[in-house]
Write a structure and sequence with these properties.
Layout lengths: L6 H13 L2 E2 L5 E2 L11 E4 L2 E4 H10 L9 E4 L14 E4 L1 H10 L4 E2 L2 E2 L20 E3 L5 E3 H13 L1
Antiparallel strand pairs: 1-2, 3-4, 5-6, 7-8, 9-10
Helix pairs in contact: 1-2
Amino acid sequence: MITVISKDIIEAIILRLQSKRIITSKGCWETELSSKSSGHVQIMFEGTLYYIHRISAIHYLELNQDDSNQLALHKNECNNPACWNPEHLYIGTYQDNFHDAVDKGMLLFGGIQYSKYKGATHCINGHEFTKKNTYIRPNGNRTCKECNKLRARKRKAA
């Protein structure tokens, strides 16, 4: 279930954030609020915690709160999860978020940094890893869609 934050609450949070805004040398907007272990910052308002980069994206970028596939993401140039500057954010999907994390070398699966395999351009059968031909599994592993089709055909023929 999606919880839509009212415009009044968003406006009130933005006003509070603007009063505490610190602009870094890289143009990031930060606050004196503490961050989570991920570096993302939350603000408590009327007993509820809100991620400030998401509030910023709703307010400045018109992130659609009714669309659960829309996320407030940091552009690759901004490596600061505490930043809520709308110029450093964009509206993306879970897959965009995953690709950003791979590009930044931030993913770890089974003790192996996923970015080590970032350079692989083809699957073990020689099919190119393109956005159209690559499925990202929930655990972060890449799967070649062409290989999946071939395996399905073999199973069907058997």
